[in-house]
Amino acid sequence: MKIYKYLIGLISLSMLSACSDWLDIQPQDTTEDDQLFETGEGFRNALNGVYRQMAGSSMYGKELTWGALDAMANYYTPSTGTTEYYFSRYQYTGSYAYPVIQSFWSTSYNCIANCNNLIQRTQKEPVTTFMKGADEKNVILGEALALRAILHFDIMRLFASAQMDDPIKQIPFVDVYPCTFKEYATNEEVSDLIIKDLKQAKELLAKFDVPRISWLLPDVRWENDYQRLMSSSQEEVEVPDDLFFAYRSYRLNYYAICGMLARVYLYKGMYEEAFRETEIVLNAVSERHKEYVFDFTNSRDMADGNSKLYNEIIFALSNQRLEEDYRTYRSGSEKLYLSNWSPLNGWFAGDANDIRYKLLVEEGWDYYNSKYLPAEGTLKKFAVDIIPMLRLGEMYYIRAEYYNHLSLAENLEPDAKEALRKQALEEFAKVRRGHGCNQEYVSTSGGDAWFNRELLNEARREFMGEGQLFFYYKRLGVKVPGMGDTKNFVLPYPQNEAL
Predict the structure, then answer these.
(1) C-beta neighbour count of 487 within 10 angstroms
(2) From CA 311, how far away is CA 221, in angstroms rounded?
(3) What is the pTM of this model?
(4) Residues of the chain predicted below pLDDT 70
(5) How many CB atoms lie within 10 A of CB 325?
(6) Which of 295, 259, 256, 292 is nearest to 277 (CA)?
Protein backbone atom coordinates (compact mmCIF):
# COMPACT_ATOMS: atom_id res chain seq x y z
CA MET A 1 0.00 0.00 0.00
CA LYS A 2 1.54 3.28 -1.08
CA ILE A 3 1.51 6.40 1.00
CA TYR A 4 -0.73 8.21 -1.47
CA LYS A 5 -3.63 6.17 -0.13
CA TYR A 6 -3.10 7.99 3.11
CA LEU A 7 -3.25 11.39 1.45
CA ILE A 8 -7.02 11.73 1.62
CA GLY A 9 -7.51 14.83 -0.47
CA LEU A 10 -7.15 18.52 -0.04
CA ILE A 11 -8.70 19.74 3.13
CA SER A 12 -11.11 22.62 3.43
CA LEU A 13 -8.52 25.11 4.63
CA SER A 14 -6.60 24.72 1.37
CA MET A 15 -9.24 26.72 -0.50
CA LEU A 16 -8.62 30.39 -1.10
CA SER A 17 -11.30 32.77 0.07
CA ALA A 18 -13.33 34.81 -2.38
CA CYS A 19 -11.28 37.88 -1.51
CA SER A 20 -8.95 38.89 -4.32
CA ASP A 21 -6.02 39.42 -1.95
CA TRP A 22 -3.88 36.27 -2.03
CA LEU A 23 -2.92 36.76 1.62
CA ASP A 24 -6.52 36.85 2.82
CA ILE A 25 -6.69 33.13 3.45
CA GLN A 26 -9.20 32.85 6.28
CA PRO A 27 -11.35 29.79 5.56
CA GLN A 28 -14.88 30.52 4.43
CA ASP A 29 -16.23 28.06 6.99
CA THR A 30 -14.40 28.41 10.31
CA THR A 31 -16.57 25.72 11.86
CA GLU A 32 -15.28 23.17 9.35
CA ASP A 33 -11.74 24.30 10.04
CA ASP A 34 -12.19 23.83 13.79
CA GLN A 35 -13.78 20.44 13.28
CA LEU A 36 -10.81 19.26 11.26
CA PHE A 37 -8.50 19.78 14.25
CA GLU A 38 -10.77 18.23 16.87
CA THR A 39 -8.70 15.01 16.80
CA GLY A 40 -5.11 14.04 16.16
CA GLU A 41 -6.21 12.47 12.88
CA GLY A 42 -7.16 15.93 11.63
CA PHE A 43 -3.61 17.19 12.19
CA ARG A 44 -2.28 14.27 10.15
CA ASN A 45 -4.74 14.98 7.36
CA ALA A 46 -3.82 18.68 7.30
CA LEU A 47 -0.12 17.88 6.93
CA ASN A 48 -0.75 15.27 4.25
CA GLY A 49 -2.94 17.76 2.41
CA VAL A 50 0.00 20.16 2.03
CA TYR A 51 2.24 17.41 0.65
CA ARG A 52 -0.45 16.41 -1.82
CA GLN A 53 -1.07 19.99 -2.94
CA MET A 54 2.66 20.47 -3.56
CA ALA A 55 2.75 17.31 -5.68
CA GLY A 56 0.14 18.60 -8.14
CA SER A 57 1.05 19.26 -11.76
CA SER A 58 0.93 23.04 -11.32
CA MET A 59 3.67 22.67 -8.70
CA TYR A 60 6.35 20.00 -8.31
CA GLY A 61 4.34 17.33 -10.14
CA LYS A 62 5.31 19.05 -13.38
CA GLU A 63 6.00 22.77 -13.68
CA LEU A 64 8.59 23.13 -10.91
CA THR A 65 10.45 20.00 -12.04
CA TRP A 66 10.28 18.55 -15.57
CA GLY A 67 7.99 21.24 -17.01
CA ALA A 68 8.56 24.99 -16.96
CA LEU A 69 11.76 24.98 -14.90
CA ASP A 70 13.55 22.45 -17.10
CA ALA A 71 12.39 24.38 -20.16
CA MET A 72 13.96 27.49 -18.62
CA ALA A 73 17.21 25.52 -18.14
CA ASN A 74 17.40 24.77 -21.89
CA TYR A 75 16.83 21.02 -21.58
CA TYR A 76 14.27 20.97 -24.41
CA THR A 77 13.52 22.00 -27.94
CA PRO A 78 9.78 22.32 -27.31
CA SER A 79 7.12 22.55 -29.99
CA THR A 80 6.03 26.06 -31.00
CA GLY A 81 2.88 27.19 -29.26
CA THR A 82 3.38 25.12 -26.10
CA THR A 83 3.82 26.45 -22.58
CA GLU A 84 7.34 25.02 -22.49
CA TYR A 85 8.19 26.87 -25.72
CA TYR A 86 7.47 30.25 -24.12
CA PHE A 87 9.31 29.41 -20.91
CA SER A 88 12.32 28.25 -22.91
CA ARG A 89 12.37 31.70 -24.56
CA TYR A 90 11.70 33.54 -21.29
CA GLN A 91 8.51 35.08 -22.64
CA TYR A 92 6.80 35.17 -19.27
CA THR A 93 3.96 37.64 -19.76
CA GLY A 94 1.91 35.97 -22.50
CA SER A 95 -1.19 33.84 -22.22
CA TYR A 96 0.79 30.57 -22.00
CA ALA A 97 3.43 31.20 -19.34
CA TYR A 98 1.78 33.90 -17.25
CA PRO A 99 -1.05 31.75 -15.80
CA VAL A 100 1.53 29.14 -14.79
CA ILE A 101 3.53 31.83 -12.98
CA GLN A 102 0.39 33.07 -11.24
CA SER A 103 -0.25 29.52 -10.08
CA PHE A 104 3.32 29.17 -8.73
CA TRP A 105 2.79 32.20 -6.55
CA SER A 106 -0.76 31.68 -5.33
CA THR A 107 -0.52 27.93 -4.75
CA SER A 108 2.79 28.26 -2.91
CA TYR A 109 1.44 30.90 -0.56
CA ASN A 110 -1.74 28.92 -0.09
CA CYS A 111 0.38 25.91 0.95
CA ILE A 112 2.26 28.22 3.32
CA ALA A 113 -1.03 29.44 4.81
CA ASN A 114 -2.03 25.83 5.49
CA CYS A 115 1.36 25.21 7.10
CA ASN A 116 0.93 28.28 9.30
CA ASN A 117 -2.50 27.18 10.45
CA LEU A 118 -1.15 23.72 11.24
CA ILE A 119 1.95 25.05 13.02
CA GLN A 120 -0.02 27.39 15.27
CA ARG A 121 -2.57 24.76 16.20
CA THR A 122 0.04 22.07 16.81
CA GLN A 123 2.15 24.32 19.02
CA LYS A 124 -0.72 24.95 21.43
CA GLU A 125 -2.14 21.42 21.37
CA PRO A 126 -1.37 19.04 24.27
CA VAL A 127 0.55 15.88 23.40
CA THR A 128 -2.44 13.81 24.51
CA THR A 129 -4.29 14.89 21.35
CA PHE A 130 -1.89 12.84 19.22
CA MET A 131 -2.05 9.07 18.95
CA LYS A 132 1.71 8.70 19.44
CA GLY A 133 2.03 11.55 21.91
CA ALA A 134 5.14 13.75 21.84
CA ASP A 135 6.74 11.80 18.99
CA GLU A 136 3.82 12.55 16.70
CA LYS A 137 3.54 16.17 17.76
CA ASN A 138 7.25 16.69 17.03
CA VAL A 139 6.95 15.06 13.60
CA ILE A 140 3.92 17.11 12.54
CA LEU A 141 5.34 20.41 13.81
CA GLY A 142 8.81 19.74 12.41
CA GLU A 143 7.60 18.74 8.97
CA ALA A 144 5.21 21.70 8.75
CA LEU A 145 8.02 24.12 9.64
CA ALA A 146 10.30 22.52 7.03
CA LEU A 147 7.60 22.68 4.37
CA ARG A 148 7.02 26.36 5.10
CA ALA A 149 10.75 26.95 4.75
CA ILE A 150 11.31 25.20 1.42
CA LEU A 151 8.20 26.77 -0.10
CA HIS A 152 9.48 30.24 0.80
CA PHE A 153 12.92 29.27 -0.50
CA ASP A 154 11.61 28.32 -3.92
CA ILE A 155 9.46 31.45 -4.09
CA MET A 156 12.60 33.45 -3.36
CA ARG A 157 14.61 31.52 -5.98
CA LEU A 158 11.92 32.19 -8.58
CA PHE A 159 10.74 35.75 -7.87
CA ALA A 160 13.81 37.42 -6.32
CA SER A 161 17.34 38.10 -7.45
CA ALA A 162 20.11 35.71 -6.41
CA GLN A 163 22.11 38.40 -4.59
CA MET A 164 21.85 38.01 -0.83
CA ASP A 165 22.92 41.64 -0.28
CA ASP A 166 20.24 43.02 -2.60
CA PRO A 167 18.58 45.81 -0.55
CA ILE A 168 15.28 45.55 -2.44
CA LYS A 169 12.43 43.94 -0.53
CA GLN A 170 11.30 41.26 -2.98
CA ILE A 171 8.96 38.69 -1.39
CA PRO A 172 7.04 38.38 1.88
CA PHE A 173 7.82 35.71 4.46
CA VAL A 174 4.42 34.76 5.85
CA ASP A 175 4.46 33.04 9.24
CA VAL A 176 1.08 33.87 10.77
CA TYR A 177 -2.45 32.59 10.13
CA PRO A 178 -4.79 34.12 9.20
CA CYS A 179 -2.89 36.91 7.46
CA THR A 180 -4.33 39.79 5.47
CA PHE A 181 -1.11 41.73 4.95
CA LYS A 182 2.61 41.01 5.20
CA GLU A 183 5.40 43.39 4.26
CA TYR A 184 7.91 42.25 1.67
CA ALA A 185 11.43 41.49 2.94
CA THR A 186 14.97 41.39 1.55
CA ASN A 187 16.70 38.16 0.51
CA GLU A 188 18.85 38.36 3.63
CA GLU A 189 15.81 38.64 5.89
CA VAL A 190 13.85 35.89 4.12
CA SER A 191 16.78 33.47 4.01
CA ASP A 192 17.46 33.99 7.73
CA LEU A 193 13.86 33.08 8.53
CA ILE A 194 14.05 30.04 6.24
CA ILE A 195 17.14 28.84 8.07
CA LYS A 196 15.48 29.46 11.43
CA ASP A 197 12.53 27.26 10.43
CA LEU A 198 14.78 24.50 9.11
CA LYS A 199 16.98 24.49 12.22
CA GLN A 200 13.94 24.17 14.47
CA ALA A 201 12.54 21.42 12.24
CA LYS A 202 15.89 19.63 12.29
CA GLU A 203 15.90 19.60 16.09
CA LEU A 204 12.33 18.25 16.25
CA LEU A 205 12.81 15.52 13.63
CA ALA A 206 16.13 14.37 15.09
CA LYS A 207 14.18 13.08 18.09
CA PHE A 208 12.18 10.79 15.82
CA ASP A 209 14.34 9.79 12.86
CA VAL A 210 17.82 9.39 14.33
CA PRO A 211 16.86 6.63 16.80
CA ARG A 212 14.97 4.92 13.95
CA ILE A 213 17.61 5.36 11.27
CA SER A 214 17.03 1.83 9.91
CA TRP A 215 13.58 3.02 8.77
CA LEU A 216 15.42 5.15 6.22
CA LEU A 217 17.26 2.32 4.48
CA PRO A 218 16.20 2.18 0.79
CA ASP A 219 14.05 -0.96 0.92
CA VAL A 220 12.30 0.40 4.01
CA ARG A 221 11.79 4.05 3.16
CA TRP A 222 10.57 3.31 -0.39
CA GLU A 223 9.25 -0.25 -0.37
CA ASN A 224 8.00 -0.41 3.23
CA ASP A 225 9.77 -3.76 3.65
CA TYR A 226 10.68 -4.32 7.29
CA GLN A 227 11.31 -8.05 7.02
CA ARG A 228 15.09 -7.65 6.67
CA LEU A 229 15.21 -5.43 9.75
CA MET A 230 13.38 -7.95 11.87
CA SER A 231 15.16 -11.05 10.56
CA SER A 232 18.62 -9.57 11.12
CA SER A 233 18.08 -8.94 14.81
CA GLN A 234 17.77 -11.23 17.79
CA GLU A 235 15.85 -8.58 19.67
CA GLU A 236 12.47 -7.01 19.08
CA VAL A 237 12.64 -4.32 16.39
CA GLU A 238 10.31 -1.33 16.37
CA VAL A 239 8.35 -0.93 13.14
CA PRO A 240 5.66 1.66 12.33
CA ASP A 241 2.19 0.39 13.13
CA ASP A 242 0.42 2.81 10.78
CA LEU A 243 1.18 4.47 7.44
CA PHE A 244 1.67 7.92 8.86
CA PHE A 245 5.14 6.95 10.09
CA ALA A 246 6.08 4.77 7.09
CA TYR A 247 7.74 5.73 3.80
CA ARG A 248 9.93 8.36 5.46
CA SER A 249 11.49 9.54 2.17
CA TYR A 250 8.09 10.87 1.11
CA ARG A 251 8.34 13.16 4.12
CA LEU A 252 10.75 15.84 5.25
CA ASN A 253 12.69 13.49 7.46
CA TYR A 254 15.66 14.59 9.58
CA TYR A 255 18.27 13.92 6.88
CA ALA A 256 16.17 15.61 4.20
CA ILE A 257 16.04 18.70 6.38
CA CYS A 258 19.83 18.60 6.78
CA GLY A 259 20.13 18.37 3.00
CA MET A 260 17.73 21.27 2.50
CA LEU A 261 19.69 23.32 5.02
CA ALA A 262 22.84 22.61 3.01
CA ARG A 263 21.07 23.83 -0.13
CA VAL A 264 19.93 27.05 1.54
CA TYR A 265 23.29 27.72 3.21
CA LEU A 266 25.04 27.35 -0.15
CA TYR A 267 22.59 29.74 -1.84
CA LYS A 268 23.35 32.21 0.92
CA GLY A 269 27.11 31.80 0.43
CA MET A 270 27.64 30.03 3.78
CA TYR A 271 29.94 27.32 2.42
CA GLU A 272 31.24 25.90 5.68
CA GLU A 273 27.76 25.60 7.21
CA ALA A 274 26.53 23.88 4.04
CA PHE A 275 29.46 21.47 4.15
CA ARG A 276 28.68 20.50 7.76
CA GLU A 277 25.11 19.60 6.85
CA THR A 278 26.30 17.34 4.01
CA GLU A 279 28.46 15.50 6.54
CA ILE A 280 25.34 14.48 8.46
CA VAL A 281 23.66 13.12 5.34
CA LEU A 282 26.68 11.30 3.94
CA ASN A 283 27.59 9.76 7.29
CA ALA A 284 24.08 8.43 7.98
CA VAL A 285 24.70 4.74 8.71
CA SER A 286 22.53 2.01 10.15
CA GLU A 287 25.03 0.55 12.61
CA ARG A 288 22.97 -2.61 13.05
CA HIS A 289 23.09 -3.34 9.32
CA LYS A 290 26.50 -1.77 8.61
CA GLU A 291 24.93 0.06 5.69
CA TYR A 292 24.85 3.65 4.51
CA VAL A 293 21.33 5.02 4.38
CA PHE A 294 21.87 6.92 1.13
CA ASP A 295 23.88 5.33 -1.67
CA PHE A 296 23.93 5.22 -5.45
CA THR A 297 21.62 3.05 -7.55
CA ASN A 298 23.08 0.26 -9.70
CA SER A 299 22.21 -0.28 -13.36
CA ARG A 300 20.53 -3.60 -12.61
CA ASP A 301 17.91 -1.93 -10.42
CA MET A 302 17.46 0.84 -12.98
CA ALA A 303 16.68 -1.75 -15.67
CA ASP A 304 14.24 -3.40 -13.27
CA GLY A 305 12.01 -0.31 -13.12
CA ASN A 306 13.91 2.00 -10.79
CA SER A 307 14.21 4.84 -13.30
CA LYS A 308 14.18 7.44 -10.53
CA LEU A 309 17.37 5.94 -9.02
CA TYR A 310 15.57 6.16 -5.72
CA ASN A 311 18.34 4.66 -3.56
CA GLU A 312 19.98 8.09 -3.76
CA ILE A 313 16.87 10.22 -3.27
CA ILE A 314 16.71 11.80 0.18
CA PHE A 315 13.25 13.37 -0.15
CA ALA A 316 10.49 13.08 -2.72
CA LEU A 317 6.83 13.88 -3.23
CA SER A 318 4.25 11.39 -4.49
CA ASN A 319 1.91 11.81 -7.46
CA GLN A 320 0.07 8.78 -8.83
CA ARG A 321 -0.70 10.61 -12.09
CA LEU A 322 2.94 11.40 -12.78
CA GLU A 323 3.57 8.75 -15.45
CA GLU A 324 0.25 9.52 -17.13
CA ASP A 325 0.97 13.26 -17.20
CA TYR A 326 4.45 12.74 -18.61
CA ARG A 327 3.29 10.20 -21.18
CA THR A 328 1.05 12.81 -22.82
CA TYR A 329 4.28 14.44 -24.02
CA ARG A 330 5.34 11.20 -25.66
CA SER A 331 2.12 10.15 -27.36
CA GLY A 332 0.92 13.49 -28.75
CA SER A 333 2.39 16.07 -31.08
CA GLU A 334 3.81 18.25 -28.28
CA LYS A 335 6.89 16.17 -27.48
CA LEU A 336 9.58 17.38 -25.11
CA TYR A 337 12.68 16.36 -27.05
CA LEU A 338 16.04 17.22 -25.55
CA SER A 339 17.79 20.26 -26.98
CA ASN A 340 21.00 18.32 -27.71
CA TRP A 341 20.93 16.07 -30.78
CA SER A 342 23.87 14.07 -29.47
CA PRO A 343 23.61 14.07 -25.66
CA LEU A 344 26.17 11.27 -25.35
CA ASN A 345 28.91 13.47 -26.78
CA GLY A 346 27.41 16.83 -25.83
CA TRP A 347 26.21 16.32 -22.26
CA PHE A 348 27.76 13.04 -21.12
CA ALA A 349 31.30 13.53 -22.44
CA GLY A 350 31.12 10.33 -24.50
CA ASP A 351 30.64 8.10 -21.44
CA ALA A 352 27.90 5.62 -22.39
CA ASN A 353 28.40 3.76 -19.10
CA ASP A 354 26.88 6.62 -17.13
CA ILE A 355 23.66 5.18 -15.72
CA ARG A 356 21.97 8.56 -16.18
CA TYR A 357 22.69 8.48 -19.91
CA LYS A 358 20.95 5.10 -20.10
CA LEU A 359 17.72 6.85 -19.10
CA LEU A 360 17.70 8.69 -22.43
CA VAL A 361 15.80 7.18 -25.34
CA GLU A 362 16.53 7.84 -29.00
CA GLU A 363 13.54 8.51 -31.25
CA GLY A 364 14.52 9.13 -34.84
CA TRP A 365 16.96 12.02 -34.79
CA ASP A 366 15.87 13.12 -31.30
CA TYR A 367 16.21 12.04 -27.69
CA TYR A 368 13.91 12.23 -24.71
CA ASN A 369 14.27 11.53 -21.01
CA SER A 370 12.53 8.35 -19.80
CA LYS A 371 13.03 9.01 -16.08
CA TYR A 372 9.28 9.47 -15.65
CA LEU A 373 8.43 6.40 -17.75
CA PRO A 374 9.77 3.52 -15.64
CA ALA A 375 10.55 0.27 -17.43
CA GLU A 376 8.38 -2.70 -16.57
CA GLY A 377 9.97 -4.54 -13.69
CA THR A 378 9.63 -5.44 -10.06
CA LEU A 379 10.70 -1.98 -8.88
CA LYS A 380 8.41 0.08 -11.12
CA LYS A 381 5.57 0.02 -8.59
CA PHE A 382 7.84 1.78 -6.09
CA ALA A 383 9.36 4.29 -8.54
CA VAL A 384 6.39 5.32 -10.65
CA ASP A 385 4.93 8.00 -8.35
CA ILE A 386 8.22 9.48 -7.10
CA ILE A 387 8.91 13.19 -7.68
CA PRO A 388 12.58 13.66 -6.74
CA MET A 389 13.11 16.72 -4.57
CA LEU A 390 16.58 16.16 -3.08
CA ARG A 391 19.36 13.86 -4.27
CA LEU A 392 22.57 12.45 -2.83
CA GLY A 393 24.59 13.86 -5.73
CA GLU A 394 23.73 17.39 -4.66
CA MET A 395 25.50 16.80 -1.35
CA TYR A 396 28.73 16.02 -3.20
CA TYR A 397 28.34 19.06 -5.46
CA ILE A 398 27.93 21.27 -2.39
CA ARG A 399 31.14 19.82 -0.99
CA ALA A 400 32.91 20.45 -4.29
CA GLU A 401 31.85 24.10 -4.14
CA TYR A 402 33.15 24.31 -0.59
CA TYR A 403 36.62 23.09 -1.60
CA ASN A 404 36.67 25.30 -4.69
CA HIS A 405 35.69 28.30 -2.55
CA LEU A 406 38.60 27.59 -0.22
CA SER A 407 40.97 27.34 -3.19
CA LEU A 408 40.13 30.92 -4.21
CA ALA A 409 41.39 32.45 -0.99
CA GLU A 410 44.03 35.16 -1.41
CA ASN A 411 47.64 34.46 -0.41
CA LEU A 412 47.12 30.70 -0.65
CA GLU A 413 50.20 28.77 -1.73
CA PRO A 414 49.98 27.21 -5.23
CA ASP A 415 50.33 23.68 -3.85
CA ALA A 416 47.50 24.30 -1.41
CA LYS A 417 45.30 25.69 -4.19
CA GLU A 418 45.99 22.63 -6.33
CA ALA A 419 45.21 20.26 -3.46
CA LEU A 420 41.86 21.92 -2.84
CA ARG A 421 40.98 21.83 -6.55
CA LYS A 422 41.81 18.14 -6.62
CA GLN A 423 39.53 17.59 -3.65
CA ALA A 424 36.72 19.46 -5.43
CA LEU A 425 37.23 17.22 -8.46
CA GLU A 426 37.18 14.17 -6.22
CA GLU A 427 33.71 15.12 -5.00
CA PHE A 428 32.55 15.17 -8.64
CA ALA A 429 34.32 11.86 -9.23
CA LYS A 430 32.43 10.20 -6.36
CA VAL A 431 29.15 10.92 -8.13
CA ARG A 432 30.53 9.74 -11.44
CA ARG A 433 31.83 6.49 -9.98
CA GLY A 434 28.52 5.98 -8.21
CA HIS A 435 26.79 6.19 -11.59
CA GLY A 436 29.11 3.74 -13.34
CA CYS A 437 31.16 6.25 -15.31
CA ASN A 438 34.52 5.18 -16.67
CA GLN A 439 36.06 8.58 -17.19
CA GLU A 440 37.74 10.37 -14.31
CA TYR A 441 38.64 14.03 -14.10
CA VAL A 442 42.19 15.31 -14.25
CA SER A 443 43.34 18.40 -12.44
CA THR A 444 43.37 21.66 -14.36
CA SER A 445 44.77 25.10 -13.75
CA GLY A 446 41.41 26.75 -14.40
CA GLY A 447 39.83 29.24 -12.05
CA ASP A 448 36.32 29.96 -10.88
CA ALA A 449 34.92 30.08 -14.42
CA TRP A 450 36.39 26.65 -15.17
CA PHE A 451 34.90 25.19 -12.00
CA ASN A 452 31.46 26.68 -12.70
CA ARG A 453 31.48 25.15 -16.16
CA GLU A 454 32.29 21.70 -14.77
CA LEU A 455 29.68 22.08 -12.02
CA LEU A 456 26.98 23.00 -14.55
CA ASN A 457 27.93 20.01 -16.69
CA GLU A 458 27.55 17.76 -13.64
CA ALA A 459 24.26 19.33 -12.60
CA ARG A 460 22.86 18.93 -16.12
CA ARG A 461 23.43 15.17 -15.97
CA GLU A 462 22.25 14.77 -12.41
CA PHE A 463 19.04 16.82 -12.31
CA MET A 464 17.43 16.10 -15.67
CA GLY A 465 13.66 16.27 -15.16
CA GLU A 466 13.98 17.67 -11.64
CA GLY A 467 13.99 21.46 -12.00
CA GLN A 468 17.29 22.22 -10.23
CA LEU A 469 19.61 23.11 -13.12
CA PHE A 470 17.99 26.53 -13.69
CA PHE A 471 18.77 27.49 -10.10
CA TYR A 472 22.42 26.48 -10.55
CA TYR A 473 22.74 28.86 -13.49
CA LYS A 474 21.01 31.61 -11.53
CA ARG A 475 23.08 31.26 -8.35
CA LEU A 476 26.34 31.12 -10.28
CA GLY A 477 25.37 34.13 -12.41
CA VAL A 478 25.91 32.20 -15.65
CA LYS A 479 23.37 32.79 -18.40
CA VAL A 480 21.51 29.73 -19.64
CA PRO A 481 22.34 29.02 -23.32
CA GLY A 482 19.81 31.05 -25.30
CA MET A 483 19.09 33.48 -22.46
CA GLY A 484 19.57 37.01 -23.70
CA ASP A 485 19.50 38.86 -20.39
CA THR A 486 20.09 37.83 -16.78
CA LYS A 487 16.90 39.68 -15.80
CA ASN A 488 15.14 36.55 -17.11
CA PHE A 489 16.31 34.70 -13.99
CA VAL A 490 13.53 36.53 -12.10
CA LEU A 491 9.89 35.74 -12.77
CA PRO A 492 7.43 38.65 -12.88
CA TYR A 493 4.97 39.06 -10.05
CA PRO A 494 1.36 38.35 -10.93
CA GLN A 495 -0.13 41.81 -11.51
CA ASN A 496 -2.60 41.71 -8.66
CA GLU A 497 -0.03 40.27 -6.23
CA ALA A 498 2.71 42.91 -6.39
CA LEU A 499 1.53 44.69 -3.27
Answers:
(1) 10
(2) 9
(3) 0.92
(4) 1-32, 231-236, 440-447, 496-499
(5) 15
(6) 259
